[in-house]
Design goal:
transmembrane; 6 helices; Methanolan biosynthesis EpsI domain-containing protein; 8-stranded antiparallel β-sheet; alpha+beta; globular; 227 residues; Methanolan_biosynth_EpsI; membrane; 8 strands; transmembrane helix
């Protein structure tokens, strides 16, 4: 007598071979690893460089030698270690002196891939060379309404004193206004400009860094291209 056919409910679904599951899991892991690498490379700027960016960066050499009461006294190059770290397409590192007061400020304007340009802030750099941050950073705004620049300002003291002796202003730009961004690394642009100005802390009504920046920021904009 022939046996009755199995009902659909009695049949066991076919199972995938263990080897196939292992291969699929490995493939997913590889894809996720590659995706993570691409995202990190994009954020770090490694996948976006092109030769024309060095032409754009070279325009920073055209920053003026005098702005307001401030006169250029020295032009220097980035420290080789910093240059390797930041991978700049262009940079201008200068010292300006106020012809009336004798106050001096150090200025760096950089253009490079978003990742390294964004993450190296004064709070990290100055804290590693014997200075200590005093208080938190704050946003300083300059310019006319609708065309306003904004930079972070932060003060440092030199040990063993706890009194502020150094004032540093810094910020970034994609070719538009300077901005005090919380997370510039996640800016939706491939490259960034950065400005950093350091000078004596001064007192209310006598702030050399602020005075210099008021004169200097307007002359930076014509030299910056959209990134």
């Amino acid at each position: 007598m022939s046996s009755l056919p199995e009902s659909p409910d009695d049949r066991q679904p076919p199972t995938a071979p263990r080897g196939s599951l292992r291969i699929a899991a490995t493939a997913i892991l590889v894809v996720l690893t590659l995706f993570a690498g691409v995202v990190h490379g994009y954020l770090d700027g490694r996948w976006t460089a092109n030769a024309d960016l060095h032409v754009v960066g070279s325009k920073l050499a055209d920053l003026p030698e005098q702005v307001g009461d401030w006169r250029l006294t020295e032009t220097t190059e980035l420290d080789p270690g910093a240059a390797d770290l930041l991978r700049c397409y262009g940079s201008s590192v200068r010292i300006y002196e106020n012809m009336k007061t004798g106050a001096m400020v150090n200025v760096a304007v950089l253009f490079g891939p978003r990742g390294p340009i964004a993450v190296h802030t004064p709070e990290i750099c100055y804290s590693s060379v014997g200075t200590k941050q005093v208080g938190g950073r704050k946003v300083e705004r300059m310019g006319l309404a609708g065309k306003e620049d904004a930079l972070w300002s932060v003060q440092f003291a030199t040990a063993p004193s706890s009194d502020p002796s150094l004032n540093v202003w810094y910020g970034w730009s994609d070719g538009g206004p300077w901005e005090a961004r919380e997370q510039p690394r996640f800016w939706l642009t491939e490259n960034l400009y950065k400005i950093q100005v350091a000078g004596p802390a001064g007192e209310e009504g006598n702030r050399p860094v602020e005075d210099f920046i008021d004169a200097f920021l307007p002359v930076t904009h014509p030299l910056m291209g959209s990134t």
